[in-house]
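hiii so um. not sure if this is the right channel but i have a protein structure encoded as tokens and i wanna go backwards to a sequence. like what aa goes where. can anyone help
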């Protein structure tokens, strides 16, 4: 990369990454956390790391064919969803019970850490209780921050279908959490 390209776009990095490991590393650093969040929501935290690895292997292999007709993030999300679906179909990605996920709270506050871990487990259970199409749409919206049109492009669904899936998914999550006595 040139010094004038201090903040290259994803498309610029993708084109450079075909032959430049530093550009590919920049793409990975820029998108790995988001890919991991989406994978964890779709396949569970225990399988997310393997899915992320599969995603970036597929991205690296596919960069030569990426023409930039769609946004890089759209292409990346589609690859992520494909890897998640593959992981859910196969047995190559062991899952870790949700109760084994690490806490977010500081270790010096074990009560708060325990409450946070419990809430995270319940939220993950609620998300996994949704049908796959709703979980996918809600995850892309709430975890990846995509707008409805981007979700439609990534999933290949009509815009109205995306809106419906998200609304039904949110309602189901609200009902599930209310049943578990968690105020959504």
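sure thing!! here u go:
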């Amino acid at each position: 990369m040139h010094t004038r390209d201090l903040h290259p776009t994803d498309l610029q990095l993708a084109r450079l990454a075909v032959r430049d490991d530093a550009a590919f590393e920049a793409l990975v650093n820029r998108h790995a956390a988001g890919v991991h969040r989406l994978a964890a929501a779709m396949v569970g935290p225990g399988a997310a790391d393997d899915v992320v690895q599969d995603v970036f292997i597929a991205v690296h292999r596919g960069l030569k064919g990426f023409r930039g007709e769609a946004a890089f993030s759209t292409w990346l999300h589609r690859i992520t969803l494909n890897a998640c679906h593959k992981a859910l179909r196969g047995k190559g990605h062991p899952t870790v019970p949700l109760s084994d996920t690490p806490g977010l709270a500081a270790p010096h506050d074990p009560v708060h850490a325990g409450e946070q871990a419990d809430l995270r487990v319940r939220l993950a259970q609620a998300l996994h209780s949704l049908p796959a199409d709703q979980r996918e749409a809600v995850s892309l919206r709430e975890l990846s921050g995509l707008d409805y049109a981007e979700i439609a492009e990534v999933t290949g669904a009509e815009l109205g279908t995306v809106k419906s899936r998200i609304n039904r998914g949110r309602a189901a999550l609200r009902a599930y959490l209310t049943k578990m006595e968690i105020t959504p």
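oh and The CA atoms of residues 32 and 52 lie 7 Å apart.
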